């Protein structure tokens, strides 16, 4: 857009464009370089689709809070507390390990008191414990065991809720432990997992995403603070993460993902189902960057995805549908906001709908590639229309596919994109 001349005496300039500033080769270079940068961060390159009904997703600070854990907050509710055992005569590591009954509707881990450490969830990779292969196992280790730190089995058999509580009386010095939940190798489908572990970094093993035999979960909630979380290839109906001052890195395949942190970056990729009522993505942080790629796991049907991406004082870079796998006529709703930092959003070719870009003391830009081919292979042409003001800090318009460039009301009304920042450029790439 910035190679066009703004009319001298008009506050707004409108363009119906089937041409572009950037050549197809250079645009492909931009996408590939961007994909390489994100891949370098350890993310998978994925692609995007979305929905129209709800544009602003509701922000819920308690999104990762599981109310079912309220009854397990006190040691008085414990079914059994276990003694620390030395792992070997030559080791200074002590351990508590016990099996949780199979078929749980909820697996959980929580701490109370001055305790910090690391939580890990893994899938067993061998049959070293054949008598436990139908059970989830909880292991807790430490290098500084004392009787003031209790490891207790918790749960309710009637509700099929089973988990572990690590308890330490308030006022005692901070101690460090590791908590590991081990999922049996041959069990592929599980229900809910919840944690309430302040000051515990989290890591979810990538071996749940085995190509031939992946492990699926229903709803997962990870509640932590002042610590990072890393999950790779997690498959679930929904995942909710809430932390603070901790980076979030992950990849996800499912229907709903909600990630909230502060003062730390988010690096994320997702395959969304987008079926029926559609899928929701929420990524929120502050004073840090967000880099993400969105895709759909059902490329042969129309999908609906809504995404809300927000930070402050941090750049945002989003790749959507870079490999053109989004099915035509799918719906995508995107709201991106930051402050004092640039935004770059790369839209997949299937996107149709409106868009609105705004900033202050900088430029709002649209970069349209007229060399892109019709993703439906029906020989249609894409029209990208835009209107800007004289300051070039606000742009609105729409994009649609049609035969002979004729207006398509259905396409123009299909999706919506809104991008805002302050004091930095915002750019939308078609």
TrEMBL record:
What are the record keywords, sorted?
Membrane, Transmembrane, Transmembrane helix
Entry's transmembrane regions: 28-49
Protein known as: Uncharacterized protein
The organism is: Favolaschia claudopus
């Amino acid at each position: 857009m910035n190679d066009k001349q703004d009319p001298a005496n008009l506050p707004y300039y409108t363009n119906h464009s089937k041409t572009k500033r950037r050549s197809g080769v250079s645009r492909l270079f931009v996408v590939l370089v961007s994909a390489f940068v994100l891949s370098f961060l350890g993310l998978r390159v994925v692609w995007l689709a979305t929905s129209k009904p709800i544009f602003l997703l509701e922000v819920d600070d308690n999104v990762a809070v599981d109310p079912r854990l309220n009854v397990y907050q006190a040691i008085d509710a414990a079914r059994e507390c276990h003694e620390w055992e030395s792992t070997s005569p030559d080791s200074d590591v002590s351990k508590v390990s016990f099996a949780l009954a199979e078929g749980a509707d909820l697996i959980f881990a929580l701490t109370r008191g001055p305790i910090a450490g690391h939580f890990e969830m893994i899938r067993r990779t061998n049959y070293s414990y054949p008598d436990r292969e139908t059970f989830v196992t909880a292991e807790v280790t430490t290098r500084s065991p004392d009787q003031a730190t209790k490891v207790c089995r918790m749960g309710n058999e009637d509700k099929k809720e089973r988990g572990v509580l690590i308890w330490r009386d308030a006022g005692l010095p901070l101690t460090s432990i590791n908590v590991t939940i081990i999922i049996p190798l041959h069990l592929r489908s599980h229900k809910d997992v919840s944690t309430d572990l302040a000051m515990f970094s989290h890591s979810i093993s990538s071996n749940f995403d085995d190509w031939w035999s992946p492990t699926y979960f229903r709803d997962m909630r990870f509640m932590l603070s002042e610590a990072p979380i890393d999950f790779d290839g997690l498959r679930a109906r929904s995942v909710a993460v809430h932390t603070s001052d901790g980076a979030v890195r992950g990849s996800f395949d499912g229907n709903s993902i909600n990630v909230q942190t502060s003062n730390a970056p988010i690096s994320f990729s997702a395959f969304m189902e987008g079926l029926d009522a559609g899928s929701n993505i929420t990524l929120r942080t502050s004073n840090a960057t967000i880099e993400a790629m969105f895709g759909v796991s059902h490329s042969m049907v129309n999908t609906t995805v809504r995404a809300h991406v927000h930070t402050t004082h941090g750049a945002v870079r989003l790749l959507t549908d870079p490999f053109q796998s989004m099915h035509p006529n799918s719906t995508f709703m995107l709201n991106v906001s930051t402050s004092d930092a640039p935004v770059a959003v790369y839209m997949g070719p299937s996107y149709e709908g409106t868009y609105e870009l705004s900033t202050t003391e900088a430029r709002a830009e649209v970069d349209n590639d007229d060399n892109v081919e019709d993703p439906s292979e029906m020989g249609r042409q894409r029209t990208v229309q835009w209107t800007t003001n004289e300051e070039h800090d606000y742009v609105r318009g729409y994009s649609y596919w049609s035969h002979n460039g004729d207006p398509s009301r259905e396409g123009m009304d299909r999706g919506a994109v809104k991008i805002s920042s302050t004091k930095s450029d915002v750019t939308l790439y078609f």
